[in-house]
Amino acid sequence: MPGAIHVVGTGTIGEPLIGTLCNFRKIGILDPETQITFTKETPVSRDRPKVKLLQARGAKFAAGREKWDAFKEAGMNPDLSRGQALIDADVVIDCTPHGNKLKQEFYLDRVDDTKLFVAQGSETGFGPRYAGWINDLPIFNRIYTDHEKFIQVVSCNTHAITAIVNSIGLWNGTGDPENVVEVRAMVNRRSNDISQTKKYVPAPQVGGHDDVVYGTHQGRDAALLFRESFGYVFPIFRTSVFKLNTQYMHSTWFEIRVQKSVSRDDVIDILKANPLIALTEKDITNEVLSAGRDHGPFGRIFNHIVVPIHKPSEEKAFPLTIFPNPDGTTSVIGFSFTPQDGNSLLSSSKIVLIALYPDEYEERANRILTSEDPLFVFKEL
Q: In degrees to the nearest 10, what's the CA dihedral of 26, 32, 35, 38?
């Protein structure tokens, strides 16, 4: 039988995820008969174009029966009820900030009839943490051996920290975890998404350290992803958050201190070998974001991170730098740009493939990495 996917929410994550899944269906990564439905809670007429465009892509609009008249008055015609969409769904992806609440209110009642529930971002406690192409096998085993029904796709900035540790510290997941001596990161968050008008800050704003071990939830989720999935416990893992008055992109300053002596060329080769990491000679976020707007699906970059390196020159210092330490360890210090929510969208898409196609999810996911039209991930920007 064809699979069915239900997306809850049409915000900055939900809307492009619905479009991405429709795109995957169109190019054969998902089966053509796959049903894609979505729920929107508020019947606001300004959202009419969004709903109609998603329906035009082939997604079906689900709403609570009690709100059908209000949606119709606002010019949006539901295709089915929210209850029916949940009954039909093999996979439910919650893109709201209320995943844990909805889990208690609705999802736990559907665990026997639904293959998987997925929450986005900071919904700690929803389920095991997941970042696509980093801990696929442990999560696969949690689903098919331990019968886990709930998975948390970590936030975009957690993806960024996780990708740096996995790539530089663990040599793209193949190295010895004892190589990682220390991880430090400063997440420089954009104020809000370019589609949002609320919560913009007028000036740089420092964040608090609300986790006594890891500093922030981004650091905690990254560290615990490695611990839950692989049993890795890194000696020092500290993160901070700083919010900037920009809507372009998040960026992260990082220091990975490793036992192994590495050169700058070694690190660049490691990054180049990772298909989810793009390199750039650009050193400013608006230029990187613009490249994604010009060439990425829905104007987005789906890579885990984009790392600025620059070509060797006498005029420029390197943003990616190697520092030998007196104790014989090596510090790799640099920056990365976070593709807003693009990386978590890709992870949400891959967890769908794991849930629907356990025997062939890797082959289907490989089409994402090798597709030329549309181009989902970049090697260079």
A: 0
- Ranges under pLDDT 50 in the chain: none
- Tell me the sheet residues that pair with 61: 38
Task: Please give the Cα distance from 14 to 93 (Å, whole number).
Answer: 9
Domain 4-155+343-370: which CATH class? Answer: alpha beta
Closest residue by Cα to residue 117 from 78, 82, 143: 143
pLDDT tens readout for residues 20-37: 999 999 999 999 999 999
Q: What's the CATH code, domain 157-341?
A: 3.30.360.10
Rounded to two decimals, the pTM is 0.94
State both tokens at 56.
Answer: 């035009």
Q: Where in the chain are all domains bearing CATH 3.30.360.10?
A: 157-341
